[in-house]
Design goal:
252 residues, alpha+beta, 7 helices, 19% helix, 29% strand
Length: 252
């Protein structure tokens, strides 16, 4: 299939729109906001369909493969043509919430499930390239599957991720947690000491309220654990484990 080159101006404008429309996907790399990036998923590209879009200056964007060994890297300037494939990545690719984002799935104004995002970018060409994913953590005791997202098993396969955000069914709970010091904690698994939300659970000790939703006290744990019928230990026991981190400070 032949994919013709596209206008650099059109591709450049599409890049600007992505950063404007999807702030939850943006990772800032400089204080002035001129150097920032996001990860895009382009499904037609198969397992190599993850790309990093970087704003490297006022007049320059760069698109490259998340895995540097895939070899895709192209600059986008308004005055230079862009390959049709790169234009498709920009216009059809789905932005992924930035690495470390903590979101909530809202049912009847209540957060029933936490969504922890892992979208790390490799630091060097030889770094391990983790596959972006979203860990779904319902509140322990919320066994009613109707209160879980329809995409629970595979969040990034659901093309409506940003529609849920627009509808208010997915909310950014970081602002609520960062102003609630001493009431939200990350508890790593006993055999893992990572500060990332990859292995472990979240403990909320008091109900937290925002303008449009509230986050109930409880233990939020991986949905696969709950499906196996495994209950989380009591919050007091979890908070006594080593490595517990106050999320208000971790997420700031």
């Amino acid at each position: 299939m032949i994919v013709h080159a596209r206008s650099g101006a059109a591709s450049f404008a599409a890049c600007l729109r992505l950063f404007r429309r999807y702030p939850l996907a943006v990772t800032p790399h400089s204080a002035n906001g001129r150097y920032r990036s996001m990860v895009l998923l382009h499904r037609d590209a198969g397992p190599t369909g993850y790309f990093i879009l970087t704003q490297a200056g006022d007049g320059l964007f760069v698109v490259r493969s998340l895995n540097p060994h895939d070899g895709v890297c192209q600059e986008i300037r308004p005055e230079e043509p862009v390959s049709g494939i790169i234009h498709q990545v920009i216009t059809d690719g789905m932005p992924i919430p930035h690495d470390g984002a903590l979101l909530g799935w809202v049912t009847d104004r209540q957060v029933t499930v936490m969504l922890a995002v892992y979208c790390r970018q490799p630091e060097t060409r030889d770094s391990l390239v983790p596959v972006p994913h979203i860990r779904v953590m319902p509140m322990d005791g919320t066994s009613e599957l109707l209160q879980w997202p329809p995409f629970t098993v595979s969040p990034l396969d659901d093309g409506r991720l940003w529609e849920y955000v627009a509808w208010g069914q997915i909310v950014d709970i970081v602002p609520l947690i960062t102003r609630s010091a001493g009431r939200a904690f990350w508890v790593p698994s006993p055999d893992r000491r990572s500060l990332r939300l990859e292995e472990g659970c979240v403990v909320i000790t008091d109900n937290l309220s925002a303008d449009d939703y509230w986050l109930p006290a409880g233990v939020y744990i991986d949905h696969w654990t709950l499906r196996e019928g495994i209950q989380a230990p009591p919050p007091c026991r979890l908070l006594a484990l080593p490595g517990v981190v106050d999320l208000a400070y971790r997420l700031r």
